[in-house]
Amino acid sequence: xxxxxxDSFTVGxxxxxxxxxxxxxxxxxxxxxxxxxxxxxxxYLNRGRVGRDFLTSFEVELSWRPAPEVLVISGGHNDRRWGxxxxxxxxxxxxxxxxxxxxxTRVVMVGPIWIDRAPPKAYAVRDALAEVAAQEGVAFxxxxxxxxxxxxRAEVLLPDGxxxxxxxxxxxxxxxxxxxxxxxxxxxxxxxxPRQPASVQGPGRSLPGYQGP
Length: 213
Fold this sequence. Notes:
Elements: E1 2-6, H1 8-11, H2 22-30, E2 34-38, H3 54-62, E3 70-74, H4 84-101, E4 106-110, H5 120-136, E5 139-141, H6 153-156, H7 166-181
Parallel strand pairs: 1-2, 1-3, 3-4, 4-5
Helix pairs in contact: 2-7, 4-5
Region (Disordered): 183-213
Organism: Nonomuraea longicatena
Domain SGNH hydrolase-type esterase: 4-171
């Protein structure tokens, strides 16, 4: 079983339903059963329209299920307006919660996705999440290192300029399935658990007026 927690890139948006988004397609390519949690506009901190972050999505939609072989946590796109210290705290807390519930599950973090050119803050988010992944001993995959637009921009990017088309999702799925199948990718082995961070502060841990992907 392959589980995901993510934002609108993971669950699909616009003309791309959940069953055709890259998460579901990745599972198909790997011959795995997908279970996909999360919602558009959400992140490690941002609660978006549904009023929940990744930790809440994990707890409500996934944590009560049997442990999967792999859990992919994919996001960060909607967290770029938060500071990196509080983002690292939230990401660490989610990983600790997952490990406590499913100690044998392999956890993979996928950084923020930008199909076209990413803003500078996206790289700050990427770096913060990569730091947490290294500290917690889980694999980190970086979509910002990839070139997703190789021809006609409209082939892989919807008119909103943010979300992938079906072809864009298929490209993401091929990339992710190859990386997940790579036997050399690190897994979440035993690691020393650092001091838990202070609680994340803020009204509902959301950004007033901000609705991301």
